[in-house]
Amino acid sequence: MDTAEHQRLNSSHKEVYPLWKKWGPYVAERAWGTVREDYSSNGDAWNYFPHDLARSKAYRWGEDGLAGFSDTYQTTIFSVALWNEKDPILKERLFGLSHLEGNHGEDVKEAYFYLDSTPTHSYMKYLYKYPQEEFPYEKLVQENHQRTLQDPEYEIYDTGVFDQGRYFDVFIEYVKASPEDICIRIQAYNRGPESARLHLIPQLWFRNTWSWTPPYAPTPRMKKNDKQPEQCSLWIDPTALPLPEWIPPAYRPAPFYAYADPEASLLFTNNETNTEKVENKPNRTPYVKDAFHRWIIQGDPCIHQEEGTKAGFHYASKEIAPQSSFTVRIRLTPQLLEDPFEEFNAIFEQRRQEADAFYEAVHAPGLSAEDKLIQRQALAGMLWNKQLYFYNVAKWLEGDDPSQPPPSGHEDSRNVHWTHLFSYNVISMPDKWEYPWFAAWDLSFHTIALALVDLDFAKEQLHLLLTHQFQHPNGQIPAYEWEFSDCNPPVQAWALWQLYKFEEEKKGQGDRDFLEICFLKLTNNFAWWVNKVDRYGNNFFEGGFLGLDNISVIDRSQTLPDGGYIEQSDGTGWMGFFSLLLTKIALELAKGNPIFQGIATTYFEHFVYIVGAMQPIDPNLFNMWDEKDGFFYDVISYPNGKWQPLKVRSFVGIIPFFCLDFLDEDEIDQYPHFKENFQLFMANNAPLIKRCLTILEYQGKKRYLFSLMNIEQMQRLLSYLWNENEFKSPHGIRSLSKYHKDHPFHFNGTDVDYEPGEATTVIKGGNSNWRGPVWFPPNILILSSLYRLHQAIGETILIQTDHSASLTPLQMAEFIRHALINIFRRNGHGQRPVYGNRRFFEEDPYWKDLLLFYEYYHGETGAGLGASHQTGWSGLVANLISRWFLSEIKNK
User: What is the DSSP letter of 530?
Assistant: First the structure.
């Protein structure tokens, strides 16, 4: 692990401010239609700031752009604009449908791919496929509007704009000659049969921080480089840009130069809202954000000749012959250079070779070329999906300008209990178009994949959720910006343990300080769950939809009209999982500080009481475990004492299996205080203990297996997982049993049936479907538990399958692992299941090695569905490939 990129990573870790990470892909693919930019009275973010306003209205909380690149705090942003001489607007950012326009929710309608990136972003590569005919904006909106929930989404691939290769492949590459010397190469290939024209406009601008609170602050400047009039170059001075005083002094931006090929012409305007268009008010300056669009397409005399806060290099109307290309070179550097492109190609080649060497060190020995391709593009997507997430909730609620407060109703629109939340951080996003905001449980899974290439960044991301900037004083972890108060599954303790053990394996010891500070913050979060989500103090947890959107027959976030309420199998299972992990972490910390032995006892007792709630001793109390079916179900409890199970076979009933771990007698002997409490608690709660503790023999001594179910129950539940007519698909474990295809579950006039593809029923917003597709996160946790079970019991128990065969937990786990990887691998027919029936992804040489990592996958075909661009948790395929995955399978 001594490649040039590893050395850069190590030097960054030692610096107060990591210089090699100062510039990166920290720009959203979509800033319009987000909560942060919504100052409406009714919280309708999509309609308040739609795509059509994005070119004309200056953003408040962040920027977007095609292949966007910026410094950490977005003082200066670079992106690429394109025009094919047929579109009504410049292609400056990605287009997609809003939540109400798409027949399955919001969805990006573009063809773009994250091809490569190192963790310091010393080398990055992005591909955008730009049609040569008019971009089908209206066609995409109209066709999707006509379609119903029963129809598939209408994608850009269905419009015909890529037929016969009539598009440009626009490759954008970034290379760092040094931390602040950025070389950019843009290559546009005509894949069509005829010559076609293209305008390329690489552009730079300052994020507008000067005009939100009058009096207006001085503006930074971009102007022609007067020191080298013979060059096509800019002098960029961000020093006047107003920035928060808490930004590190070492970071404060300094002037630099931007060089381009001499054939480009310079364009200037300002990053200011065109208020004439947006608000029907006079513009403060005649030079506004959409000037390049109006100048190039409409011929309006609206650009400045000398300077501005936004500048572009215009390569006008380049005619590109069939199967030929046109190349643009840009260099951003703090130095005056006589020949800025003299070593340009050599720098590119060196950094690409270094990127190859870095990934060879990441790839496990013996990987096939196919698996290396999948792993590298998966990790590239993870690294491209970093974004500056800027949000001050208190400031957003009250408005920026006291003289022009937001309309009545805005102050109560959302997140009113989160006024402490103030983020100015680079965060790993689920998807920078679909979800350009962090999500608490997504981010926890991201850290496991990111650890493969940048362990320090992974640890920073997990810790970020637990800082005072994010975690509520009451202990809650914010869910996502549409409603921070929603509950996401408490998987942070699991991620913490995985990162700790990964570092221990990699470096010989784990980071105990990191483990301890995160553990202490997680105990606060655990207390919030106990005090706020267990409404009756009976160890049942009602966390609402818990990230599973429409998996239930009803919206579990809402109160039932007859006074009943849902006691959740998954919510309670998650808390058993949480408590057992905190027990394990506390014991690890007790190796250095015995006081943690008592804390471990507390969480062990919580675990046992949760088992007692799910499977009570008293036969008069309701039991989430259905003995006849051999499955866990949600239960509705009514005020009159009656209760009713919701017999839906879904992940809701599998999540209790995640709560599984073991300790050997020798381990417990290391903790005398915990051992004493453990033995006393076992003696005083023998009936309960029998339900959650199996005592095994291992090398002549006792092994204690802790779980929310006994081994017989595990065998029964796992037999459902291994039944092809239930949960088992060729591509992983389905989120809902296929049994419900022919046996829908009915309740209060609504149904749950098996929907292996796009959702046909919407309960919670968005385009997610948990009624049959394969999702990576729960599949990963199923794998985690199967490997732990194998470690604990070896091959002493077998799981009965639907074909009368028997399997060990390890055999089950290995099948699931390969089934998930095989979504992306070419099968015997040369097809990657992820692309369904889109043959051009299999046959066209300009498409066939391009991979997308989706939100979830069709339960029968494995085709990708939902958000399409590295919805972070699918990046875990990188871990599955290398077997560098979870502490449970190391050295296997």
Answer: I
Distance CA 125, CA 116 (A): 5
| Secondary structure letter of residue 489 according to DSSP | -
Residue 214 has pLDDT above 80, yes or no: no
- Token pair of 509 as six digits: 């010891």
Q: Say what the alpha-carbon torsion angle 696, 699, 702, 706 is, to the nearest 10 degrees.
A: -50
Which residues face 131 on adjacent strands?
167
E strands, 20-179, in order: 23-24, 69-71, 76-83, 96-97, 107-108, 112-117, 123-131, 167-178
Q: Residue 748, SS3?
A: coil
Q: Is the pLDDT of residue 116 over 50?
A: yes
State how beta strands 196-206 and 310-320 pair: antiparallel
Angle between helices 440-450 and 369-384 (to 10 degrees): 130
Q: Which of 431, 461, 439 is nearest to 29 (CA)?
A: 431
Distance CA 431, CA 437 (A): 8
Whether the Cβ atoms of residue 302 and residue 294 lie closer than 8 Å to each other: yes
Query: Could you give the C-alpha distances from 362 to 1, 351, 376, 881, in angstroms and in order?
Result: 8, 16, 9, 11
863 within 8 A of 833, measured Cβ to Cβ: yes
What is this structure's pTM?
A: 0.96
**Residue 44 is encoded by which pair of tokens?**
């309708």
pLDDT per position as a tens digit, 152-209: 999 999 999 999 999 999 999 999 999 999 999 999 999 999 999 999 999 999 999 8
Q: How far is Cα of residue 793 from the mean position of the Cα atoms in its chain?
A: 35
Residues in the chain: 892
Please give the share of the chain, as a percent, with pLDDT higher than 70. Answer: 99
**Cα(82)–Cα(732) distance, integer angstroms:** 40
List strand residue ranges (DSSP E) for 827-872, in order: 856-857, 864-865
Specify whether the CB–CB gap between 593 and 607 falls below 8 A.
no
d(CA 472, CA 419): 9
Can you read off the two tokens belonging to residue 770? Answer: 């948990």
Please give the structure tokens belonging to residue 242. 């107003």
Structure tokens at 558: 């809402």
Distances from the Cα of 623 to the Cα of 262, 618, 748, angstroms: 76, 9, 22
**Vertex 277, ends 272 and 283: CA angle to 5°?**
45
Give one DSSP letter per residue of 189-222, joined into a string: EE-SSS-EEEEEEEEEEE---SSSSSSPPPP-EE
**The two structure tokens encoding residue 132:** 């040569």
Three-state secondary structure call for residue 815: helix
Please choose, from the candidates 874, 866, 877, 889, the residue with its C-alpha nearest in 3D space to the C-alpha of residue 766.
866
What are the residues facing 76 on neighbouring strands?
Answer: 206
Kindly compute the dihedral angle of the four CA atoms of residues 817, 820, 826, 831, in this order, to the nearest 10 degrees: 150
Rounded Cα–Cα distance for residues 496 and 478 (Å): 17
Q: Peptide bond preceding 809: is omega within 30 degrees of 0, i.e. cis?
A: no
Taking only Cα atoms into account, the Rg of the chain, rounded to an integer number of angstroms, comes to 28
Cβ partners under 8 Å of residue 883, min gap 6: 364, 889, 892
- Provide the pLDDT confidence category of residue 647 given band limits of 50, 70 and 90: very high
Residue 889 has what pLDDT?
Answer: 53
Pairing of β 625-626 and β 799-800: unpaired
What are residue 728's DSSP bridge partners? 733
The rounded distance, in Å, linking the Cα atoms of 521 and 475 is 8
Task: State both tokens at 743.
Answer: 């046996």
CB 583 within 8 A of CB 679: no
> CA separation (Å) from 667 to 663, 701, 703, 886?
6, 11, 9, 21
User: What DSSP line would sit under 40-57, residue for residue?
Assistant: -SS--HHHHS-HHHHTTS
Judge whether 53 and 42 are in contact, CB under 8 Å: no
Q: Which tokens go with 601? A: 């006892």
Cα–Cα distances (Å) from 243 to 219, 303, 372, 395, in that order, read: 12, 27, 42, 15
> Of 130-134, 372-376, 790-794, which range is least confident?
790-794
Token pair recorded at residue 336: 């005056």
